[in-house]
UniProtKB/TrEMBL annotation:
Residues 5-79 form the Carrier domain. Gene3D superfamilies: ACP-like. Pfam families: PP-binding. SUPFAM superfamilies: ACP-like. It comes from Saccharopolyspora thermophila. The lineage of its organism: Bacteria, Bacillati, Actinomycetota, Actinomycetes, Pseudonocardiales. This is Carrier domain-containing protein. InterPro entries: ACP-like_sf (IPR036736), PP-bd_ACP (IPR009081). It comes from the Bacteria. Coiled coil: none annotated.
């Protein structure tokens, strides 16, 4: 499974399990506000993604995220940045 698909699956599972959203309706263009994700649920989702993927998501990066696809892209980007940094460290750069 590619990283983006894995992140999307994690977001979809959270939205269905915690927020009661029908998983069949969760696409990249699904607006978080349209599925009525409350602010506390969004905080919990971000915390779950950080824990699951061992990354940090700053408030600055999260500002403006409105859709599932934007959130998935942000997490995938952080994972890529994290991997690149780890590669540099292992290479002694």
């Amino acid at each position: 499974m590619d990283v983006r698909r894995e992140v999307h699956s994690a977001v979809e599972n959270f939205l269905t399990d915690v927020c009661g959203v029908d998983g069949a309706t969760v696409t990249d263009t699904t607006r978080l506000s349209d599925v009525e994700v409350e602010s506390l649920e969004l905080v919990a989702l971000v915390q779950e993604l950080q824990r699951r993927f061992d990354i940090a998501l700053t408030d600055e990066r999260l500002m403006g995220v409105q859709t599932v696809g934007e959130l998935v892209d942000l997490v995938a980007l952080r994972l890529d940045e994290h991997a690149t940094t780890a590669d540099r460290v292992s290479l002694g750069e």
